[in-house]
Design goal:
By secondary structure, the chain is of the alpha/beta class. It is built from 14 helices and ten strands. The chain has helices at 5-8, 35-41, 59-72, 85-97, 112-121, 132-145, 156-162, 164-173, 189-203, 248-258, 267-281, 291-301, 323-329, 340-346, and strands spanning 31-33, 44-49, 77-81, 100-106, 124-128, 149-150, 180-184, 212-218, 261-265, 310-315. Strands 1-2-10-7-8-9 form a six-stranded mixed sheet, with helices on both faces. It has a four-stranded parallel sheet with strand order 5-4-3-6. Helix 5 links the parallel strand 4 (100-106) and strand 5 (124-128). The longest helix has 15 residues, at 189-203. It is globular. The structure holds pyridoxal-5'-phosphate.
Length: 351
């Protein structure tokens, strides 16, 4: 029986007492072959669907370990800055552990689904009229002053927990050797975590290869690609609307060591891929999660040769988190009378 990723990968995630693990049985998410996209672009593309985690994003992987460690260390409260998913996950694991949870969020740029999660799990929510980078600055100052456990990806246990996604990908691929791991980059914690995971799996001889790490950003918040701080990051992909990635240096190392790259794409391409993924592959993700695929395809269209490459794209968050994005961009047909004849006329039954 699956009892969460600490239980499964205990060897790589030591705890003092296995009875005190704080888990919602996160992890063990599906790796789905992208049939339509693979055929169309002549690649072997798989989707690591992290939206299947208990709070709907990969953040649960880091949070189970960070909160387990907070409990081990007798912490009474946890705190984070968030573009949404970290707060949803912190609030859920905080509730499970019986810890007070405080979240500081950019008021205007957070998907409603994520906000409602933090609310219902019972976190203390402080929206600020500013962006994520400022929220994190404030949280860092507060944790220096008070005995609160920071659960942003500055917390090394977050990265430790998140590295298990690399183990799962390798386990799920079996004998197939992964060429490229592609993922969206915001604070650059996840790309750091995947690289650590692949290296540990390689060192412990669970795999005999290492994939290249490809990190993708939105043009308006491409702090890694442009190698600078973006003062006013802008993108429809709110989860990666970050101008000052806290794990910048580690992420650079991951990309350099693995001979990978950073690349950015437009909001328009993100929006197009959002629709393609749902309508051609049946996989509904939040906008930020489309960047690795939109990015891979943008590279191919720019002459990059990725023919027959085995690529895993990490789909970081569930589409249900940001329903507004769909409802604001696509038209819902107006309601009609429940009349059989009328409806028969409306539907094209001959196709
Ligand atoms: C947090 C998050 C990211 C960015 O991950 P980093 O570790 O900050 O680079 C990407 N997509 C989604 C959906 C997220 O919640």
């Amino acid at each position: 029986m699956w009892r969460g990723l600490i239980d499964k990968y205990l060897k790589y995630l030591p705890v003092k007492n296995i009875n005190n693990i704080v888990s919602l049985y996160e992890g063990n998410t599906p790796l789905i072959k992208a049939n339509w996209l693979s055929k169309r672009y002549n690649i072997e593309l798989y989707l690591k669907f992290e939206g299947a985690n208990p709070t709907g994003s990969f953040k649960d992987r880091g949070m189970t370990y960070a909160v387990t460690k907070a409990v081990e260390n007798k912490s009474k409260a946890i705190i984070c800055a968030s573009t949404g998913n970290t707060s949803a996950s912190a609030a859920a694991f905080g509730a499970r552990a019986g810890l007070k949870t405080i979240v500081i969020l950019p008021e205007a740029k957070i998907a409603k689904g994520k906000l409602s999660q933090a609310m219902i799990y019972g976190a203390e929510i402080i929206p600020i009229k500013d962006n994520f980078d400022r929220a994190l600055e404030i949280v860092r100052k507060l944790t220096e002053k008070y005995s609160l456990t920071l659960v942003n990806s500055l917390n090394p246990f977050r990265i430790e927990g998140q590295k298990t996604a690399a183990f799962e990908v390798a386990d799920q691929l079996g004998k197939k050797k992964l060429d490229i791991l592609a993922l969206p980059v915001g604070n650059a914690g996840n790309i750091t975590a995947y690289w650590k995971g692949f290296k540990e799996y390689n060192e412990t001889e669970m795999i005999d290869y290492l994939p290249k790490m490809y990190g993708f950003q939105a043009d308006g918040s491409a702090a890694m690609v442009q190698n600078k701080v973006i003062k006013k990051p802008e993108t429809i992909a709110t989860a990666i609307r970050i101008g000052k990635p806290v794990n910048r240096d580690k992420a650079k190392i991951a990309v350099n060591e693995s001979k990978g790259l950073f690349h950015s794409i437009s909001d328009q391409k993100i929006k197009e891929m959002h629709k393609i993924l749902a309508s051609k592959e049946g996989v509904f993700v939040e906008p930020a999660s489309t960047t690795p695929i939109a990015g891979i395809i943008n590279l191919i269209e720019n002459g990059y040769n990725l023919k027959h490459k085995k690529i895993v794209a990490v789909l970081t968050g569930n589409g249900l988190k940001d329903q507004e994005f769909v409802l604001n961009n696509y038209d819902l047909p107006v309601g009609v009378k429940g009349n059989l004849k009328h409806i028969e006329n409306l539907i094209n039954l001959m196709d």
